[in-house]
Structure formats: C-alpha cells, structure tokens
C-alpha cells in the first residue's frame, strides 16, 4: 500500500497527492511516470511524476478528473492509501545546458513540465515558460513555474487570467522577436502539442513532446501505447514518453485516444462505477 | 485388449462458449484410480525422460492407484513447484506422454490429467503442515514471478535460501496470470500455488520493476544478494508492420489477454478496465496464445471469430487439445492465409482484414514448408477487431540497465544450460534466454538454474572461508 500523505485541490477538477513511495522517489528523474491502481477493481493509470523528495521518500502526482477512474481516485484524501504504485517508468528527460529552452505546459500538462523546467533551470539554461489553461480556475502551478523560469507567460482560452489566447501565441512572438531558442519542451493536450510542433517546424527548432497514450502495463508488454514516430512504431512506455514533435503522427495518436470513449459512456450509464453517485 | 485412456470430463462446447469457467472439469477419484491402474510401472520409465522437471511419474501414479493421494502430491511436489498449473497447461502429449510405452497404441497413460488430479487434491486437502525453515544458506533475488522465476524460487527456498521474487506487475504469476485465460487455468489455482511457495518462505514483492525501480547491480552491491536469477520472460509483442496496424480495434494478444485476465475486463463495468470485442474478430497466428485470444473473444460475445494462419493445419503450433477445443467451440479457421493490410473507416476503426492466400513451398530453416503468397488471391475478411498473436520478444528493461550482461542479436540474455550468464552471480532462464516457449520448459530452466545457483553460492562461501 502507498499512503497519501497530503492532498491539495489545485482546481475543482485537478488534485495533487503527495504519496509515500520511497523506492520510486529514490530513483525517479524528470520526464518519468508511474502506473497506479487505486483498488482491486481499478484500472492501471499512468501518471507523470510532478515532483519528488528523495529524503522524505515521496512523489507528487497531479491528475485531472476526466473519467470514472480519475474521479474515483480524486475522492481519496490524506490518510488513505493507493493499492499499487509502480515505477519510475519511461526514459528520463535528457538534461544538459542547451542555452534558451522554452517549456510549455497546457492544462494538466504543466504538472509534468515543471520538474523538467526545474532541471533545465538547474543545468544553467535560460528557461522561458508558457503555461495555459481553459480558464483561470484550471491554471495550475503558476508559482512553481515562475520560480524556475527566467520569464513566465500565461494564456487562457477565455482571458480570465494572463492573456486571452493559446500557448502558441507567446511562442510565435518569442520566435519573431529573434529569441535564440535551442529547444522547446511541450506537454499538454495532443492538439496543443501538435500546434506547437507546427509553429516550430518551419524554424527547425528542436521540439520535444511527452505522450500519454492508452497504456496497460507500462513496461513494453502490451504494445497498447504504440505511436507512429518518423513512420516507425514506438512504444511510448519504454521508448518514450518523450519524442521529437516534428516526427510524431499526432492525428493517429488522437484517434487512438478515443478508442474507449464508447466504453466510458457505457460505464457512466451503467452507474456501476463508485464515482457515479 | 488394453483398456482405453479415460476421457477428461468437460463442459459442453455449447455451454462453455459463453462462460469463463474451466473447460476441463478434472477426474474424479475413481476415474483417477482407474486411469492410474493402466500404468505398466515399467522399470525403464521412459516417461520421465520427457519431463523437463524430472517428476518421478511412475511413483506418483502408483500412489494414486493405491489411493494414497497425499503421497502422490508429495511425490510430485518434490520436483514440481506448480503441479496444478502443469497438470493443466503442459503440452504433455509432446513430453511425458509421448514416451509412455502405451503411446505406441495412441493410448498413453493420461499423466497430465493424473498430475492435475493429485495437485487439485493437494490444494483442497492441504493439511497446513509445512516444514520449518532451515538455517539460511544465503540470499537470492529472483526477477519475474512467472513460471521460471517461481520454480527457481521454490527450489531455492526448499534448499534453505532466503528468496525474494521481484515482480513488475501488481500480481505474481507472469503469463499464468495475465496471459492464460481463466477457462484454461483458473486464477484461483495459480494463487494457491503461489501461496504454497510463500509458505515455503519465499517473499514476493510486486510493483517492483527491475531495471527501473532498482538495478541488478544494486541487488548485489547494496542489498547483499549472493546471486540473482533473471526470469523476465518474453513480454514484448511482435507486430507485422502492415498498414493499418495502429487502427482502433487492433490489439496485441498480450494487451487483449492482459485486459481480460489480469484486469478482469470481462466484468466491465463492475471493474474499471474496458476491452473492445466486436462482432467479427480475426486472430492472426495459431499458437496457444492465438487460441486463447480467439476463445476469449468468443466468450466476450463475438459472433464470428477467425484464426488467420499462413501455414496449414499440420504446422499449427498450438497444443492439439487447445486446437480441438477451439474447433468445438466454433472458431473458424482461415488456413494458408496471411494478412497484408488492415482497413479502417473515417473514425479510425478497423473494418476489414485484407488477406492473401498462401501455398506451401520448399522447407525453410525451421524445417517447415515455407508459405508463399498466391499472387492475385487477395480477399477481404470483414472484421472489427484484429488480435495479433504472432509471438513475443524479450523485454529489454533489465538488459538495458545491467552492464556486462551479454545478449544476442534478438535481445535475449545469453546463458548456458545451467543458467550462467556473462555476469558473475547473475543467472537467467526461461523465455528471456530461449525466446517464447512453454511454461514447463521455463520451469525446467528455473530448476536447473536453482541447482547451479546453489553450487555457485556454496562454492563462493567455501572459497571465502577457505
């Protein structure tokens, strides 16, 4: 069992857990993820490690309640335990001094981009961050991101915080202003990562994206997380989760992510899931 | 005229196609004793040569014949840590039973069924008495709680080692849990076998991913293990690299079976993991895994389930019993047929499998006649689910993070017959060494490695004290 030591509500639908998991905390690096299963009937859910404390033996998980499983998970609190947490999984982010690095987080994607931005910052890079959300209420980790960034740009779809618009707007301006960007790291909804890659492609700015496809085991066994990168099949769990954004087949990825939409509807209508009531 | 071998009572094909309960129901005590009486108790006991874990077959059969069921299971357990599993999924017809003197008449003693009978008797009549642990001879880590690892762990614990098994998934058992379906191997049976290993003193840590949560070197240098056995199996699914393989509705057999067996997707939405099974399902391949995926699809409500296999029935690698069961249940076979393309609709879902007819040419390296496409014979099989069951490769996580561990060009760990690898104190066996094979061969490898580890650790201790 993996005890939840602390719970915070970052927005009504976004929850943060600090979880006791010493073996994972000892090993994890920015860019890696874990798989948890909250109880006997639960799904195996992949979540990026948003932070870790090696001394305390804790990892921080941030997730958005989108379906039955995550809503169910969101009802747990400090003092409860998660049945299974396995990791760290996936390849760690390659960290070195590149120069100017732009870190982009959209929605819940700010959580995984934060430890990466911090590591780039600690490696001596000039980190410019752009974070965005649908509205002010859904914007997370602004303070944390500010601390590790030379400058921080905020966008919201409705203009309720920062500027009204998309995360690619400040990115376009940085490029237009002649900022010498050596690397862009973008994590968020697939459509956002796709649009970031389209903005940087004509300028040949190296762009990394972190993918979160449907996954079961997270160790390469199921092949469910396969994604086409440079027209070759890769498994996001062992080859990724980060890939060159200019080579990812985002359209295929978006289609695969909808694979269980019908099943999720059945689950909601059956009312069998314990988050239903 | 010698008596015929006793039939295995089974659920009728009509009934079982819609449930996940075990197909084969097991012998009664009377039937088991009658079958055991058929054994000639020949002095040469050729059956034993065919058993990778060297069970004293005539001895346990004699105990059953005499009605001494406790003695029978004790005799088996002397060599086999997972008898209830082996009695169900071993390819007995190609092992012990093949060598039986009575096999010449096609009526070998039903050794596998008798093993299952004895093991099930043992599970339901466990008297709870277990030998006290001996003084520890040393500490051994086992990577992977599948057939190879569990066997090695059981043998080492029996010898007096402190054994910890590390398993990446949340439940031990490996392919016995995530792969083989409930109707062929009930999970309760596997759990009981594993419980009996725990009672022998084996510690099992789940959610522990070798190569990620810890490395092999750390186990030796920081955790103080005297030796490590790697039994991580073949867990990386192969795909065909044909167009359309990433469409929705295309699964690897691993993913499909894991969702159903390990995550209990057949109880969805009472359980949270869904699985998609359409009306028409094509399973590519014809091994035991393919039969499992096909029969599972049927039980999940598919109307037409096809096995698509590029060779002929003679080359089908699945056990004959599994093939017969599949046929009885109504699985349809497209033999000498190879997929060339998967077609989908505008929503990215599978609509059909485009296939080409094959004919058999000259024998290839495997000794089997090579399948060759018949140009222009393409046809479309309308399906909404495709399951790729064409084999698995080695999982790379351990190899990638263990410097000095030699691997071959396929990524399998290089190890000798006894399990010695290129790295001091590190042993390996089962599918991770040989490539995908059977449960019993993996168990045989685990057994040999346990003996080698014992020699190695005691040799090292003697040198250190000498």
UniProtKB/TrEMBL annotation, chain A:
<dbReference type="Pfam" id="PF00175">
    <property type="entry name" value="NAD_binding_1"/>
</dbReference>
<keyword id="KW-0001">2Fe-2S</keyword>
<protein>
    <submittedName>
        <fullName>Ferredoxin-NADP(+) reductase subunit alpha</fullName>
        <ecNumber>1.18.1.2</ecNumber>
    </submittedName>
</protein>
<dbReference type="InterPro" id="IPR039261">
    <property type="entry name" value="FNR_nucleotide-bd"/>
</dbReference>
<dbReference type="InterPro" id="IPR017927">
    <property type="entry name" value="FAD-bd_FR_type"/>
</dbReference>
<feature type="binding site">
    <location>
        <position position="225"/>
    </location>
    <ligand>
        <name>[2Fe-2S] cluster</name>
    </ligand>
</feature>
<dbReference type="GO" id="GO:0004324">
    <property type="term" value="F:ferredoxin-NADP+ reductase activity"/>
</dbReference>
<keyword id="KW-0479">Metal-binding</keyword>
<dbReference type="InterPro" id="IPR012165">
    <property type="entry name" value="Cyt_c3_hydrogenase_gsu"/>
</dbReference>
<dbReference type="InterPro" id="IPR050353">
    <property type="entry name" value="PyrK_electron_transfer"/>
</dbReference>
<dbReference type="GO" id="GO:0006221">
    <property type="term" value="P:pyrimidine nucleotide biosynthetic process"/>
</dbReference>
<dbReference type="GO" id="GO:0050660">
    <property type="term" value="F:flavin adenine dinucleotide binding"/>
</dbReference>
<dbReference type="Pfam" id="PF10418">
    <property type="entry name" value="DHODB_Fe-S_bind"/>
</dbReference>
<dbReference type="GO" id="GO:0051537">
    <property type="term" value="F:2 iron, 2 sulfur cluster binding"/>
</dbReference>
<feature type="domain" description="FAD-binding FR-type">
    <location>
        <begin position="1"/>
        <end position="95"/>
    </location>
</feature>
<keyword id="KW-0285">Flavoprotein</keyword>
<keyword id="KW-0411">Iron-sulfur</keyword>
<dbReference type="InterPro" id="IPR017938">
    <property type="entry name" value="Riboflavin_synthase-like_b-brl"/>
</dbReference>
<dbReference type="InterPro" id="IPR019480">
    <property type="entry name" value="Dihydroorotate_DH_Fe-S-bd"/>
</dbReference>
<keyword id="KW-0408">Iron</keyword>
<keyword id="KW-0560">Oxidoreductase</keyword>
<feature type="binding site">
    <location>
        <position position="237"/>
    </location>
    <ligand>
        <name>[2Fe-2S] cluster</name>
    </ligand>
</feature>
Automatic annotation (TrEMBL), chain B:
<dbReference type="InterPro" id="IPR023753">
    <property type="entry name" value="FAD/NAD-binding_dom"/>
</dbReference>
<dbReference type="Pfam" id="PF07992">
    <property type="entry name" value="Pyr_redox_2"/>
</dbReference>
<dbReference type="InterPro" id="IPR036188">
    <property type="entry name" value="FAD/NAD-bd_sf"/>
</dbReference>
<dbReference type="GO" id="GO:0016491">
    <property type="term" value="F:oxidoreductase activity"/>
</dbReference>
<dbReference type="GO" id="GO:0051536">
    <property type="term" value="F:iron-sulfur cluster binding"/>
</dbReference>
<protein>
    <submittedName>
        <fullName>Glutamate synthase (NADPH), homotetrameric</fullName>
    </submittedName>
</protein>
<dbReference type="InterPro" id="IPR028261">
    <property type="entry name" value="DPD_II"/>
</dbReference>
<dbReference type="InterPro" id="IPR009051">
    <property type="entry name" value="Helical_ferredxn"/>
</dbReference>
<feature type="domain" description="Dihydroprymidine dehydrogenase">
    <location>
        <begin position="16"/>
        <end position="124"/>
    </location>
</feature>
<dbReference type="InterPro" id="IPR006004">
    <property type="entry name" value="SudA-like"/>
</dbReference>
<feature type="domain" description="FAD/NAD(P)-binding">
    <location>
        <begin position="139"/>
        <end position="446"/>
    </location>
</feature>
<dbReference type="Pfam" id="PF14691">
    <property type="entry name" value="Fer4_20"/>
</dbReference>
């Amino acid at each position: 069992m993996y005890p939840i030591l602390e719970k915070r509500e970052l927005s009504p639908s976004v929850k943060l857990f600090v979880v006791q998991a010493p073996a994972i905390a000892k090993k994890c690096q920015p860019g890696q993820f874990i798989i948890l299963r909250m109880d006997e009937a639960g799904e195996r859910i992949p979540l990026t490690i948003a932070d870790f404390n090696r001394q305390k033996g804790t990892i921080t998980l941030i997730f958005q309640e989108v379906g039955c499983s995550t809503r169910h998970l969101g009802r747990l609190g400090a003092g409860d335990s998660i049945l299974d947490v396995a990791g760290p999984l996936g390849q760690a982010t390659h960290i070195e001094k590149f120069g100017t690095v732009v870190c982009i987080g959209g929605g819940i994607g700010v959580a995984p981009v934060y430890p990466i931005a911090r590591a780039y910052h600690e490696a001596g890079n000039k980190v410019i961050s752009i974070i965005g959300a649908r509205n002010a209420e859904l914007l997370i980790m602004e303070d944390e991101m500010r601390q590790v960034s030379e400058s921080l740009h905020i966008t919201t779809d409705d203009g309720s915080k920062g500027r009204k618009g998309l995360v690619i707007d400040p990115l376009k301006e940085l490029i237009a202003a002649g900022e010498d960007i050596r690397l862009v790291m973008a994590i968020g909804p697939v459509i956002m990562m796709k649009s970031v890659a389209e903005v940087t492609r004509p300028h040949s700015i190296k762009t990394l994206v972190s993918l979160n496809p449907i996954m079961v085991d997270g160790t390469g066994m199921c092949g469910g997380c396969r994604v086409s990168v440079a027209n070759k099949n890769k498994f996001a769990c062992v080859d990724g989760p980060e890939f060159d954004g200019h080579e990812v087949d985002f359209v295929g990825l978006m289609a695969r992510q909808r694979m269980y939409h019908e099943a999720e509807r059945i689950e909601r209508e059956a009312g069998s899931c314990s988050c239903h009531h | 005229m010698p008596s015929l071998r006793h039939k295995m009572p089974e659920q009728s094909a009509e009934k079982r196609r819609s449930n996940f309960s075990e197909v084969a129901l097991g012998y009664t005590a009377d039937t088991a004793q009658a079958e055991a009486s058929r054994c000639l108790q020949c002095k040469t006991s050729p059956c034993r040569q065919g058993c990778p874990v060297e069970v004293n077959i005539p001895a346990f059969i004699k105990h059953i014949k005499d009605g001494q069921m406790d003695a029978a299971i004790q005799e088996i357990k002397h060599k086999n840590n997972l008898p209830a599993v082996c009695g169900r999924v071993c390819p007995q017809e190609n092992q012990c039973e093949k060598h039986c003197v009575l096999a010449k008449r096609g009526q070998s003693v039903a050794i596998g069924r008798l093993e299952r009978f004895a093991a099930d008797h043992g599970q339901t009549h466990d008297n709870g008495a277990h030998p006290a642990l001996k003084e520890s001879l040393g500490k051994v880590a086992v990577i992977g709680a599948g057939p190879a690892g569990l066997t090695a762990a059981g043998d080492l614990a029996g010898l007096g080692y402190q054994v910890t098994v590390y398993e990446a998934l949340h439940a031990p058992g490996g392919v016995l849990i995530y792969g083989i379906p409930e109707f062929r191997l009930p999970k309760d049976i596997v759990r009981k076998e594993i419980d009996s290993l725990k009672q022998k003193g084996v510690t099992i840590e789940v959610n522990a991913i070798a190569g990620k949560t810890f490395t092999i070197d750390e186990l030796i240098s920081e955790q103080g293990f005297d030796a490590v056995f790697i039994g991580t199996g073949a867990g990386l699914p192969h795909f065909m690299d044909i167009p359309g393989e990433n469409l929705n509705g295309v699964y690897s057999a691993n993913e499909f079976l894991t969702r159903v067996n390990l995550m209990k997707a057949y109880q969805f939405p009472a359980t949270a993991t869904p699985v998609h099974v359409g009306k028409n399902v094509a399973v590519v391949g014809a091994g035991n895994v393919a039969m499992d995926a096909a029969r599972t699809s049927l039980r999940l409500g598919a109307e037409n389930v096809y096995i698509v296999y590029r060779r002929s029935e003679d080359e089908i690698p699945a056990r004959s019993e599994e093939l017969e069961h599949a046929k009885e249940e109504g699985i349809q076979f497209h033999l000498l047929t190879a997929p060339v393309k998967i077609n989908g609709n505008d929503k990215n879902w599978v609509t059909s499998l485009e296939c080409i007819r094959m004919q058999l040419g000259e024998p290839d390296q495997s000794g089997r006649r090579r399948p060759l496409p018949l140009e222009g014979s393409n046809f479309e099989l309308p399906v909404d689910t495709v399951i790729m069951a064409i084999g698995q490769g080695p999982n790379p996580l351990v190899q990638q993070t263990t410097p000095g561990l030699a691997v071959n060009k396929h990524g399998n760990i290089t190890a000798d017959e006894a399990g010695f690898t290129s790295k001091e104190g590190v042993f390996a066996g089962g599918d991770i060494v040989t490539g995908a094979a059977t449960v019993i061969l993996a168990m045989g490898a685990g057994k040999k490695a346990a003996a080698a580890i014992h020699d190695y650790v005691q040799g090292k201790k003697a040198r250190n004290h000498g």
